[in-house]
Amino acid sequence: MEQRYATAPDQVPGMDTEELRRRYLVPGLFVDDEIRTVYTHHDRVVLGGVSPVSAPLTLPGYPEIRSEQFFDHREAGVVNVGGPGTITVDGTAHRLAHGACLYVGRGAADVVLSSDDAAGDEGPARFYLFSAPAHTAYPTTLVEPGQGTVRELGDQLTSNRRTLNQYIHSSGVQSCQVVMGVTTLHPGSMWNTMPAHTHDRRTECYLYFDLPDEARVVHLLGEPTETRHMVVANREAIISPSWSVHSGVGTSAYSFVWAMAGENQAFDDMDGFDVATMR
Ligand SMILES: O=C(O)C(=O)C[C@H](O)C(=O)CO
Ligand SMILES: [Zn+2]
What we know:
- By secondary structure, the protein is mainly β.
- The chain has one domain: Jelly Rolls.
- Helices cover about 5% and strands about 40% of the residues.
- It contains one helix and 24 strands.
- The chain has one helix at about 15-25; strands at about 1-5, 25, 35-40, 45-50, 55-60, 75-80, 85-90, 90-95, 100-105, 110-115, 125-135, 140-145, 150-155, 160-170, 180-185, 190, 195-200, 200-210, 215-220, 230, 235-240, 245-250, 255-260, 270.
- It has a seven-stranded mixed sheet, with no helix packed on it. A seven-stranded antiparallel sheet has the order 2-21-18-23-15-14-13. A four-stranded antiparallel sheet has the order 5-10-7-8, with no helix packed on it.
- About 45% of the residues are buried.
- The structure holds the ligand O=C(O)C(=O)C[C@H](O)C(=O)CO and zinc ion.
- Zinc ion (ZN) binds near residues 199, 204 and 246.
- Zinc ion (ZN) binds near residues 197, 199, 204 and 246.
């Protein structure tokens, strides 16, 4: 498990491109037949990529989280950003189509992830995991793609028309900390999360997906008055500390998994600001 220590906003202006990427970009999460994990000390979130191709993969415990099983004191939201797959939690199989989300509650002991047809047209499953510490056990629950609470945001005229699906949230699938969903840009719209915001109560991570191989998202980060950017490819994740803007513009339409953990689960508890004040 890779460790990423927490950073303060006043470190950002002194970072060059390489350091920004090393601290906040998470590339290479999806490698055939591997489980890759990154621990950020921002709100103690673990990001993971699970890519079962030739055989199912079992999520192990890790010394970095000092537990025998991964879910001994944690919960997670998992979104499948690949071909159809199945997550079997303590003997119960949950089938995840592309874009579906499974909440796995604290106490799950045996978690096995597999592709339904790795050689098929849709390819192997690619499971993206966002985990946070949990104080109690909520039921493991599946949400089908496009379900949950749906919000239509933005406008074609400002290139930010998008559909936001809230899957794990205070009025949907229950959790201790994790708030998670998927946002999909409409064709011709390129801007996500603009007007932008921060939320000093929660760390948020984005995983961009369904972005063509040759396309990129220019993702903004840093404090609103001192932003930087990173150029991000398909299936790369970004860690946004509570003080950081998280917004981006693509060279093509795309989707992204957004997920948060921290002080509260209030999705609309955002610190907004006028675009004109950004630097
Ligand atoms: O398109 C959007 O806007 C989003 O998806 C915003 C994220 O959900 C977010 O940043 C929530 O805090
Ligand atoms: Zn946000």
